[in-house]
Amino acid sequence: MDSGAEDGSVAEGPDREQNAELVGGWARAFDLVASEYGWSDDQILDLTVARLRQIVQAITVRQASFDKRNRAYITWQTKELSSFIAAAGSSSAEQADALMGAVSKISMDPADEVEEAPKENLPGSYERAMSLFGPGGM
After folding, report:
1. Which of 56, 58, 2, 68 is nearest to 31 (CA)?
2. Whole-angstrom Cα distance, residue 20 to residue 9?
3. pLDDT tens for residues 28-48?
4. What's the first-to-final CA gap in the chain, in angstroms?
5. Which residues contact residue 106 at a Cβ distance below 8 angstroms, ignoring those fewer than 6 apart?
6. Is the model more confident about 50 or about 114?
7. Cα separation of 23 and 57, whole Å?
8. SS3 10
9. Packing angle between helix 93-104 and helix 49-89, nearest 10 degrees?
10. Can you give the residue ranges of every domain in the chain?
11. What integer pLDDT is reported at residue 20 of this predicted model?
12. How confident is the model at residue 95 (pLDDT cuts 50, 70, 90)?
């Protein structure tokens, strides 16, 4: 079974998921360092494990910082454009306020995602659960 397309790219679909298990921690570390610095496997193998871990962590931290800045920029840009569209496309002040409220909720930061409130137990759910154990509960 061929795991890649003719151009050498990774196949989409089920083959891609099956091949994902072949990529372990070492393969990911080598890929990360090689793609970031252009180093060969031999150059990476010359590193101590401790140094390789430091390099991988440094790259990961830098990429996370870049991603955070990029998400903040895209969020700002989207909010600005949406504000102008909402203001220009609104036929009333109420509609503009509603649209601006939606604009203010735009975020690409996972920390801004609102968690759902815990669901309340249905009335009698404890009693129903206890009835599963037969007459008189446990």
Report:
1. 56
2. 14
3. 999 999 999 999 999 999 999
4. 55
5. 75, 78, 79, 82
6. 50
7. 18
8. strand
9. 180
10. 14-107
11. 65
12. confident
